[in-house]
Amino acid sequence: MPDNEYGWEKLYAERMVAAYGRRFGIEVRIARFQNCYGPEGTWTGGREKAPAAICRKVAEVKNGGTIEVWGDGTAVRSYTYVDDMVDGIRRLVNSDINTPTNIGNPEYVTVDKLVQTVGKAAGKKIKIKHINGPVGVESRNFSNAGIYTTGWKANFPLIKGIGLTYPWIKEQVDKTGK
């Protein structure tokens, strides 16, 4: 039972795809992504995922600087590096799984831990100013049991994925002169 329209939109789309598959005899696969991030993704403009937004904010401040983060920093999320997501999609498509399947890194971190991880990748000490803003639910119940049956596993822990993402976002920030 979704808690907002965004969740209902996702479930409706899944039902439509499944109905289309049944109606026209097409095998379908439904993947549920858990916060995909990586280089060459959206990194500014308000539509970016938290890892990209935090990478951008850290790139924009000097060592020892302060960034603003919505909420109190305790919300828990899992972030999946793009290469792991692509591998999961490939494995799901090649499987016989015909139910919605979650693909996500089992490593859960708080927002404050995400900021610390980006700071480490950037070689900076970052201070956090918590401000009011949308934070969503505190955490989600997300099982990867289905995708694990394909042999999939996350190969990019957060520190490794951020280590590959931060330099690209910093390059973008440097190009824009912020």
Explain briefly what this protein structure is.
The chain is an alpha/beta fold and 178 residues long. The protein is 44% helix and 15% strand.
Descriptive report:
This protein has helices at residues 5-24, 50-60, 82-93, 111-122, 145-148, 158-176, and strands at residues 31-33, 36-37, 66-70, 76-78, 80-81, 101-103, 108-110, 127-131. By secondary structure, it is of the alpha/beta class. It has a single domain (5-176), classed as UDP-galactose 4-epimerase, domain 1. α2 (50-60) packs across α4 and α4 (111-122) crosses α6.
Q: Which features does this protein show?
A:
178 residues, alpha/beta, UDP-galactose 4-epimerase, domain 1, two-stranded parallel ribbon, 6 helices
CATH superfamily: UDP-galactose 4-epimerase, domain 1
Give, in spatial order, the strands making up the sheet with the most strands. Answer: 1-6
Low-confidence stretches: none
Could you estimate the helical fraction of the residues in percent?
Answer: 40-55%
- Provide the CATH architecture: Alpha-Beta Complex
Count every beta strand, where a strand is a DSSP E run of 2 or more residues. 8
Count of helical regions:
6
* The level-1 CATH class: Alpha Beta
Shape: elongated
Portion of residues in beta strands equals 5-15%
Radius of gyration: 18 Å
